[in-house]
Structures are given as C-alpha cells and as structure tokens.
C-alpha cells in the first residue's frame, strides 16, 4: 500500500514537470512544502536529469525549487499560526495535549526553532512538515523565512546536481536517499513518543492514588 502510494506521488511529480517544465518544479515543490508528501527528491533529481538533456536550464531548476519551497513553507507557516494553533487549543484535550504543552512547544521553538528549521529543511520527510509547527508556535516569521531559505538552497542544489550527473540513471539516487527519509521518520516518531511519555503519560501515572493495603 505504501509502495503504491509512493509510486503515485512520484508519477504525479514527474508528470507535472514533464508538462509544465520549470513551472512544474515550482508548483511541485510548493505542494511538497505545504505538508503534502510529494517527494522533493524525485522532483529535483528529475529536474536535474532534464537539465542534463537540455530540456530545462540547470540554475532555473534550482531557482524554481527554492522559490516553490519558500511559497509552500510560508503558506504552511500561516496555516499553522492561524489554524493549527486554534485547533490544538480547542481539540488538543481529546488527544491529551493540554495548553501547557503548547506553551512548552512555544518555548522550545523560540529557543531552537531557527536550527530546527534550518536542518529540518535538509532532512527527507521532516522538511515536508517542519513549517507547520513553526507557525503553531509563532516562530518569528522573518527568522523562519531566512532559515527556510538557507536550508532549501543546499538541498535543491545537491539533488539537482546529482540528477544532472546521473542523467538517465537519476532514479538510482533514490535507493540511497529513501532510507534516510525512513530513518528521519522513525526518529521523529520516537521523539514524539518520548515527549508524550515525559509530559503526559508519566505525569498521569504519578497522579494516580497509591495502592492501599486491605
């Protein structure tokens, strides 16, 4: 099921680029940064391959990718700031997420948000969703845009260059990049579970009345 979904997303990305060229890369990377997992690895690798063929221009591929990332990331940021935050305040209690946990997340992102945004943009899978919590925690928007840009540039240049060098064998690179994405997903889930345990479940257990001897 997951493999089939991945293939559909990959085919969608390549079809969009084949049809619209540089604009297709811009749109695809914008979608990827709006928390929709259209694989940026496929988008930029395929863009590099088309640049090697002469169909697209190498630097225009990179510029389109970076600008698409910025546009989608800003959209996700504002969605998180004005929609996601309200949703958590209203409905977070149903998933044991209280307002104080949102305040803790605010503090963490204020302290480490710049680095999280910078390095998150260079990590498969995590880069797709990093903008949403940045908006929810109200990270400074100018810092968010600046560090998003810094993180997008090396990612897009690197993938485009790999696709350009590999040419028609560009898909081979996915075999090495995809495991990194799965590892990033595993680490992210582990950190979420750790946060829930330390801040919610463990405290709930400690609040329970001690057993009584009969």
Describe this structure in words.
This protein has one domain. It contains nine helices and no strands. The termini are far apart. Mean pLDDT is 77; it is low at 208-214. It has helices at 2-20, 22-32, 40-53, 58-91, 99-120, 126-129, 131-136, 141-166, 174-207. The protein is mainly alpha-helical. The radius of gyration is 20 Å and the shape is elongated.
Global mean pLDDT: 77
Q: What is the share of helical residues?
A: over 70%
Largest sheet: none
Assembly type of the chains comes to single chain
Report the end-to-end length measured between terminal Cα atoms.
53 Å
Q: Quickly count the helices.
A: 9
SSE string, helices as H and strands as E: HHHHHHHHH
Question: What fraction of the residues are assigned to beta strands by DSSP?
Answer: under 5%
User: How many structural domains in the coordinates?
Assistant: 1
What are the segments in which pLDDT stays under 50 over at least 5 consecutive residues?
208-214
Structural class: mainly alpha
In one word, what is the shape? Answer: elongated
Number of strands: 0
Integer-rounded radius of gyration: 20 Å
């Amino acid at each position: 099921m997951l493999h089939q979904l991945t293939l559909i997303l990959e085919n969608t990305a390549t079809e969009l680029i084949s049809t619209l060229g540089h604009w297709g890369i811009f749109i695809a990377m914008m979608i990827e940064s709006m928390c929709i997992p259209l694989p940026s690895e496929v988008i930029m690798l395929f863009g590099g391959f088309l640049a090697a063929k002469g169909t697209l221009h190498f630097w225009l591929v990179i510029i389109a990718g970076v600008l698409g990332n910025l546009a989608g990331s800003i959209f996700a940021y504002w969605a998180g700031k004005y929609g996601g935050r309200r949703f958590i305040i209203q409905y977070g209690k149903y998933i044991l997420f209280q307002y104080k946990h949102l305040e803790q997340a605010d503090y963490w992102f204020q302290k480490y948000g710049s680095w999280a945004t910078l390095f998150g943009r260079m990590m498969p899978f995590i880069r797709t969703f990093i903008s949403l919590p940045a908006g929810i925690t109200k990270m400074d928007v100018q810092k968010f845009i600046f560090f998003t840009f810094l993180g997008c540039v090396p990612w897009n240049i690197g993938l485009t260059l790999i696709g350009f060098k590999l040419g028609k064998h560009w898909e081979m690179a996915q075999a090495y990049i995809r495991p990194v994405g799965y590892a990033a997903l595993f680490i992210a889930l582990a950190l979420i579970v750790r946060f829930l345990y330390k801040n919610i479940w463990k405290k709930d257990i400690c609040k329970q009345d001690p057993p009584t001897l009969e």
